[in-house]
């Protein structure tokens, strides 16, 4: 089931999320719905707060729609913890499904060491680099209550304020379902 994506301005996007355990209700269905939602919106990652749930869960697929891509990185991260970020920071133009129509250069380190549970509650600790590391960092930020716009300089944030306010009011029209915090009518 395709779920509405929570738009910029909703308080859930600024919350530090809580861990879950194996008894979380209908977790496998939630994960499947998150992948369907992400693919429908043409994203490469989606965190639970983006669908209104303040829990430590996110998904990543760096090659959505391309099952043959040998470099594809597709995973579920439950209760993730980034243990280390290393390397020389590099800029990349990022976007976010919760902040449609805005893309900005964000500096991130190229390597992460992350510990997490997968959808089968197997514990993993792995080193990830390159684009997969960047997507992980972006989604991990979501479960920590941080948006990519929080990483921009003060001047750039001021320049984007009008666009961000418009998003929170629902004055944006992405090709996927969204839930707007400051809009009364349903979309």
Mean pLDDT figure? 94
Radius of gyration: 16 Å
Number of helix segments? 3
Distance between the termini: 17 Å
Query: Largest beta sheet, briefly?
Result: 5 strands, antiparallel
User: Beta-strand level of the residues, as a percent range?
Assistant: 25-35%
CATH topology: Peptide Deformylase
The CATH architecture is Alpha-Beta Complex
Order of helices and strands: EHEEEEEEEHHE
Number of strands: 9
Q: What sort of overall outline do the alpha carbons produce when their principal axes are compared?
A: globular
- Name the strands of the widest sheet in spatial order: 2-3-4-7-8
- Specify the structural class: alpha+beta
What's the quaternary structure here? single chain
Uncertain spans: none
The CATH fourth-level homologous superfamily: Peptide deformylase
- What is the number of independent domains? 1
Give the C-level CATH assignment. Alpha Beta
Helix content: 10-25%
